[in-house]
Amino acid sequence: MTAFEPDCRRCPRLVAFLDRVKQQHPDYRCRPVPPFGDPMARLLIVGLAPGMHGANATGRPFTGDHAGILLYATLHRYGFASRPESVSSDDGLELIDCRITNAVKCLPPLNKPQTAEIRACNDHLARELAALPEDAVVIALGTIAHNAVLRACGEKQSAWPFAHGRVHRLPGAPRMIDSYHCSRYNTQTRRLTQEMFHQVFEQARELLPNP
Ligand code: URA
Questions:
Q1: What distance in Å separates the CA atoms of residue 117 and residue 200, rounded to the nearest whole number?
Q2: Among the residues of 25-169, which ranges form H helices?
Q3: d(CA 120, CA 5)
Q4: Which site from 44, 120, 144, 193 is most exposed, i.e. has the minimal number of CB atoms within 10 Å?
Q5: Ligand 1 site, residue 17, Cβ cutoff 6 A
């Protein structure tokens, strides 16, 4: 099995949902959304799952929805993206030593993947993590991403609790920094501010000095 399967249909609920959304929006991708960026990048951002009118429409993670606004602006600020905005999958934006993926590759109803779906998709993430260089850093956006990374690395959730800004030094795996997800809900309620998000990327930059 490869790290990404563009025609994966292993989750019946997600497959049925994507088929329905495709009928309503024939121009949307409505298939698994591939990771974006160099597989050998030193920074891997792990999100939750494609958004209905964002990645599920455009085919690029965090592109076309609110969550991507802060993410791409921050990646650009810290030298990980060639531009501050990601508009479409063919807008020419390039990630620099960075890759973006999701814990679940298909759009889930109500943005909530079920535990069985997170598990079914986890071997994709495990392969992506295994392919990273030794000194890589992962930023996990939210607890679902955090737990998916732990599962992919064979680690217990109870041993590595989620905490915004915490760096986890998992044995034999990339270092993982936790961040609250940059969702519209979290930014509008100020659970996650721009400053808090910048601090996470400052930590990532300290762990990954420019070559
Ligand atoms: N878009 C994504 O690709 N992932 C998220 O987690 C949110 C929006």
A1: 28
A2: 55-58, 66-77, 115-130, 143-152
A3: 12
A4: 193
A5: no
The whole-number pLDDT of residue 2 equals 64
- Taking the model in full, what pTM does it have? 0.97
Calpha distance 175→149 (Å, rounded): 11
Answer whether 45 contacts ligand 1 (Cβ < 6 A): no
Nearest to 149 by CA among 77, 13, 47, 80: 47
Q: Is the CB of 62 under 6 A from ligand 1?
A: yes
Q: Average pLDDT, stretch 22-40? A: 97
Q: Taking all residues of the chain, what is their mean pLDDT, rounded to a whole number?
A: 96
Cβ atoms of 43 and 204 within 8 Å: the answer is yes
Q: Which of 4, 56, 65, 146 to mutate to test the pocket of ligand 1 (most atoms within 8 A of CB)?
A: 65
Please name each of the domains of the chain with its CATH number: 40-207 (3.40.470.10)
- Alpha-carbon torsion, ordered 7, 101, 67, 9, to 10 deg: 20
Select the more confidently predicted residue: 210 or 96: 96
Tokens of 199: 């601090």
Q: Provide φ and ψ at 78, rounded to 5°.
A: -100, 15
**Structure confidence at residue 101 (pLDDT):** 98
Closest CA to 142 of 191, 201, 97, 105: 191
